[in-house]
Amino acid sequence: MINRSIAPPSKEIEQIKLIEAAKSELSNGIPVYTINTGSQQLLKIEILLNAGSVNEHKAITARATNSLLKEGTKKYSSSYIAEQFDFYGAFLETDCSKDSACIALYSLNKHLSNVLPLLSEIMYEATFPQNELDVYLQNSHQHFLVNNQKVDVIARNYFAEIIFGENKYGYRTKEEDYTNLKQDDIKAFHKSYYLNNSPTIILSGRIDDTLHTQLDNLFGKSVKTKKQQHSNIQPISSLQQKHHIDKADAVQTAIRIGRLLFNKTHPDYFGMLILNSLLGGYFGSRLMSNIREDKGYTYGIGSGVVSMKQTGYFVISTEVGVDVTNDALKEIYYEIKRLREELVSEEELYLVKNYLLGTFIRSADGPFELANKFKGIYEYGLDYNYYTQYIESIKAISSKRLNELANTYLQEKDLVELTVGKNN
Amino acid sequence: MIEFSTFKLENGLRVIHHFDNSTQLVCLNILYDVGSRDENPKKTGFAHLFEHLMFGGSVNIPNYDEPLQRVGGENNAFTTNDITNYYLTLPANNIETAFWLESDRMISLAFSEKSLETQRSVVIEEFKQRYFNQPYGDVWLLLRPLAYTTHPYNWPTIGKEIKHIEDAKMEDVKSFFHTFYNPTNAIMVVAGNNTLEETKLLTEKWFAPIEGKTKKPRNLPKEPKQIEARTLTVERDVPLDAIYKAYHMCKRSDADFYAMDMLSDILSNGDSSRLYIELVKEQQLFSSIHAYVMGDLDEGLFVISGKLVKGIQMKDAEKAIDAEINKIKLQLIEDDELQKIKNKLESILVFNQMNILEKAMSLATFELMGDAALVNHETERYSAVTSNQLQNAANKYIQESNCSTLYYLSKKN
């Protein structure tokens, strides 16, 4: 008979090997980073540009430009482009954040040569037809209306405004933005941030030897351009500590508690990531254990340390039953206070460390995941040493250090609180 | 192509092993052949509530999550109308922890009153978060009872109403466990960087001692053929009118499933699909529209749902959907369009086999449908479908008399 009450022996996670991206350049200097791995005959090509909303002069320009690239070019109509990508089973994904924009193409290797030319076509030759813009604005506006009925979406938008203040990081999209945007705004943005800007190309998956030549023909012949810089953000958090947005019909209240912090280039960033995990970064975290698993106030609660190019923030987020909103708030502050006043036990710290090491392996498992790992350092001008240091920090950090960090960064007076829901 | 081996223990546990040395991880996936369709109509939401309780400690291990996290692992689970699936991933050299944890909760749960009380509240909050605190969140609470009069697909996995969750008793929990949670009713997949020998050894060590049971035959009431169109109109505080049309179709394992899935792709998969091009881009009647199959193991639904552009009349929007449906019924799909859908499906299948977790889940699901090897024949099965078969399937299933339509209207204040 085996003794089932004793855990089987386990091994510590010693070495974590990352496959690093290999650098090359196109004829005009555009950098290409390649992660050649994977068990399936497929790949992803990402074009990364400093073309996020921090660089726009009018709200929603960056996002609209990015989304509309595929809606018509000098040579091809929107429907032709869609038909081609679909026919070859390829997927085009456009994405635009505050900091940057991305165009990603996913394809099976065997069909790549049929769709690759379209990628440079939409990037350089997009025409942004008025009728396509009209449909885009109408439908985005409608999505906006639906989204703004969700307490978590309202909370996310207002929270950014509260902690960043009146600038591009803090900007909250308004309904009138969908009527103010004009074709000329998009064309001007495209010219500055897609044509007169140097992209970075990231390849992941099975990368064929001939791909570099194909890319050079499509992206490497244009004139050498300089990378556009980010317009500067000066975050100023609201001085008011408690905020409430009324949504009378809500059956749950969205809660956000957090503060402006720093990004991954700061020396305390790793420490805060680990402290954050302990508090609300995984299923067994203190917030989950207390507020979900002990009290049953919520389906889920979590916290995060979020890095952006120019700064970063810390946030706790959850949706709780209307009737237990105050109890949940009390417990959240109690858990933060506990981090400031008590040392974490060795046992809990050991668990969190191993969990984070395992999570790191999972986050680097597969070609696309490795590409994300690369982007995570590249966009901040860091190198792979960053991850070595992260692993070392996890292994080395002490309870005492975590306690110091909690006292430095998680004082109650420095946290802002936002609730969205029924008035209490 | 997913290569795998299978074996079976004497207690009835079916095991599938898939080796992948491109990863440092291993995934252990256990599918239990029980879903919300197996619930008592007066005690719905139970399979899902039970899934939550599976994390509340087992007979020899007071806490499920902690020991797993301590060795770098992570886990989750989901419940559907058909199945309950549990999965965990961890560094390959710590795989034994997964066998230890999963075998213990297959022997017995701790059945703690505290856990039941807490998870009742958690699930009630989940119910509120997903179904009542989202615009259009209650659609499936309305559409399922409209489409199914008899079969237990009549209610969603979360349950018919919050009251059913509130009323859940410990004796219900125990009887549910004893009926459905045993080796005979489970399929286990181990996928990742560990050998078949190791999987066999560990399975034998941790799972062989568990007592097997006779599988309870499933005798679910069959849904009578729908012969008349059904409609329901509701008004809610949402910004846009929406329409949901649900047509009865075949089982997941039926040959017609592939044709119906392809029809849904022709209608709405991708920016070149018919409903998107015609109704969103050209006629601008909808701000979004989707067609999809539910993929249920018993006779399922083919669904078309869309949100109307503000100011568009419902009858005009619905007429436009019907016109597109008529096209696929009357005109054969041309070769190019058929090829496009086949290419797309092939691509989706290849992309879906990129990581061990997705591979493990597919193997388990196909084994439940009769044979794990079917996972490697999906591309072929789609690729064999002809235009004539698509047309026949459209005429057979996409009929108004076979349809339940929900008009979900924006409340005019």
- Determine the mean pLDDT of chain A: 96
CA-based shape of chain A = globular
Instruction: Report strand % of chain A.
Output: 15-25%
Q: Please write the string of helix (H) and strand (E) elements of chain B.
A: EEEHHEEHHHHHEHEEHHEEHHHHHE
- What spatial form of chain B do the alpha-carbon principal axes imply? globular
Report the sheet with the most strands of chain A, covering strand number, pairing sense and barrel closure: 6 strands, mixed
| Structural class by secondary-structure content of chain B | alpha+beta
Overall residue-averaged pLDDT value of chain B: 96
Give the uncertain stretches of chain B in residue-range form: none
Rg value of chain A: 24 Å
Topology:
The complex is a heterodimer of chains A (424) and B (413).
Chain A: E1 22-25, E2 31-36, E3 42-49, H1 61-68, H2 78-87, E4 91-96, E5 101-108, H3 112-125, H4 130-147, H5 151-164, H6 177-180, H7 183-195, E6 200-205, H8 211-219, E7 242-246, E8 252-260, H9 269-281, H10 286-294, E9 298-307, E10 312-321, H11 325-341, H12 346-363, H13 367-378, H14 385-396, H15 399-409, E11 416-421
Parallel strand pairs in A: 2-6, 7-11
Antiparallel strand pairs in A: 1-2, 3-5, 3-6, 4-5, 8-10, 8-11, 9-10
Helix pairs in contact in A: 1-7, 3-8, 9-15, 10-11, 11-15
Chain B: E1 5-8, E2 14-19, E3 25-32, H1 46-53, H2 65-70, E4 74-79, E5 84-91, H3 95-107, H4 113-132, H5 139-147, H6 162-166, H7 170-180, E6 186-192, H8 196-207, E7 230-236, E8 242-248, H9 256-268, H10 274-282, E9 286-293, E10 301-308, H11 314-330, H12 335-351, H13 356-368, H14 378-383, H15 387-397, E11 403-410
Q: Can you walk me through this structure?
A:
The complex is a heterodimer of chains A (424) and B (413). Chain A is α+β, with helices and mostly antiparallel strands and 424 residues long. Chain A has 15 helices and eleven strands. Chain A has helices at 61-68, 78-87, 112-125, 130-147, 151-164, 177-180, 183-195, 211-219, 269-281, 286-294, 325-341, 346-363, 367-378, 385-396, 399-409; strands spanning 22-25, 31-36, 42-49, 91-96, 101-108, 200-205, 242-246, 252-260, 298-307, 312-321, 416-421. A six-stranded mixed sheet of chain A has the order 1-2-6-3-5-4, with helices on both faces. The longest helix of chain A has 18 residues, at 130-147. Chain A starts with 21 loop residues before the first strand and ends with a strand. The mean pLDDT of chain A is 96. Chain B has 15 helices and eleven strands. Chain B has 413 residues and is α+β, with helices and mostly antiparallel strands. Helix content of chain B is 41%, strand content 19%. The mean pLDDT of chain B is 96. The interface between A and B is large, with 75 and 82 residues.
